[in-house]
Fold each of these.
Amino acid sequence: MWISLDQATFGQNRSNSGALRSLPDYIRELDSLPIDSVKRLNLSRMNLDSFPTALLRFTEVEKIQLNNNRLSYWPAELADFKKLKSLDMSNNFLSVGQLNVRNLKRLEKLVISSNRLTPDFKIKAGKRLKSVVIDNNRLKTLRIRSRKVREITAMYNELETLKCSAWFLNNVRKVNLADNKLTSLPDGLLRYRKLEKLVLSDNRFTTVPPEMARYNQLAGLLFYKNQIREIPDFIFEFKALKELDFHHNQLKSINHPWEKLPQLEQLYLAHNQLTDLPESIGDLTYLRFLYVEDNRLTHLPASFVKLTQLERLSMNKNAFIVFPAELLQLTQLQELDISENDIESFPAALCKLPELRLLLLNDNACKTEMLCERWMKSFDQQKQEVIRFQY
């Protein structure tokens, strides 16, 4: 039902990018505004193959969108926008091997996804560039020369090497390499020891690389959609970890020292082969989101009642026969999906959970039983707040 908040999403295809927009109409719209008030130019979907020189008079512009056009070269006119902070050139036809944007001295974010960049691509940027998004270009090597880059997003490539200038290694905080066909870490990635978030989802890992133990400042680690059979113990030494995502893997057991991660807030273990949850999971007292759907669970540990901060719980497609009474102690629970199990009846106390707003019970063993139908009607009548449910 629910998925990780940071799940990788693919860039929009040109053929589905929406209707073309009129450049003359847009220029007339801008002409009605004071020149100094124009901070953003939205030139997306205008079928452009060059930059409109009529727009160079808007010298206060801080953001330019040139995505979904037909540009095959880097527009030299961009250098005239001295205050430019954000530039989107995605979904064009750029086929360069190197990009030099050092003359854009205030540029903070650069998006060049879905182009035709060469496999050994390089970027030279000014000292303020913080974020680079370069998805869907089938890069094998990415080199970035800048001082302040903190976030690198390079999904849907085939990266073997990721290298950045030595003087800003300690600034990199987030790297997203989802869907790169990786079986091991790209060369150079281990140099960024102060990473706070690492996304390696939708790759081909069968194990978590042991050299990742040096990433002891991680707050988020996403390994969903791989073929991993075990969560390594060194992850439980990451004292800053708040989000851990291993959904869609091949986990059979998670008997780990969860008490070492009391600060964890989000845990995604759906679509694995788990038959039980350990008692130690009750020590995750700050846990807010827990997703364990599509496993083989039949019961919950007694310690589950200690998860008093839990807001979202998804446990559909398991093997529960009896409704887990531990759930009735979760007073902060807002969303519960326990559909597609084998539960025959539900307790009346369920309607007394004060924060519950979303409840899914469909496709359980009692779905045709009059008793359950009456219970559901009673539930609807007793609950004063608006609750949506599917049955």
Amino acid sequence: MKRYISLVFLLILNGCGQYSIRNIDKPPPQLHEVWWKKGTSFLQIRKTLLECGQASLGGASSEIYEKIGIVEQKDQTNHSFLVDRCMLKAGFVEQNTSWTLKDACTDMRYRDYPACQLNAVIPTPSVERRLNSWYCKTKTDYDYCQRHALAPQLCNPEKIKTPPPECLADGQTQSPISQTNSSTQIKPRTNTYIPPDRMQQQAIQLQRDTQNQSNRQMNNMLKSTAPKILR
């Protein structure tokens, strides 16, 4: 009997552990890896997530939701559903996930949420919403970071000057600090071709100038050290 129980226990462990063993070296997908659209880069996906209302690209925790004024757990979950519906409306599809919005909205715990209803008001991607998101504000506004970041002591005024690309306005390819200091940037050196005969003349002239300077220094030294004649 003990042998039979042990065998059943091992079979259960083997069945339950197969997924963990197969994925032991695979970290969980990042938020932008959950969404896919043909011809779209990860940067574009990250931008669209923020434009759809995603508070943070690292995943919106309850603390972050509270920072943007969404306190109730139900409202936080409903907001995340609206972000998903916005992404779907924008032509993205979910991948690398075993729990989709369809699964959530058919679950008895969530199927009555406003975001799961057919007449739900689905947000459309907004650049203004992206630039004013909690994620981008904490990376572009030092005062805002000090007031609203989860760890204000990590706010760095130097990093604020070089925000991540997903927090730049459309068409802005340079960071603010590089734009303001563009006049003081070092210009690249250009190589100018010099003919060989001219290079030889320059070398000879340089040698002559060096010799003349050496002679003048020698003459000055002799004059200063020569004995004075008494009159």
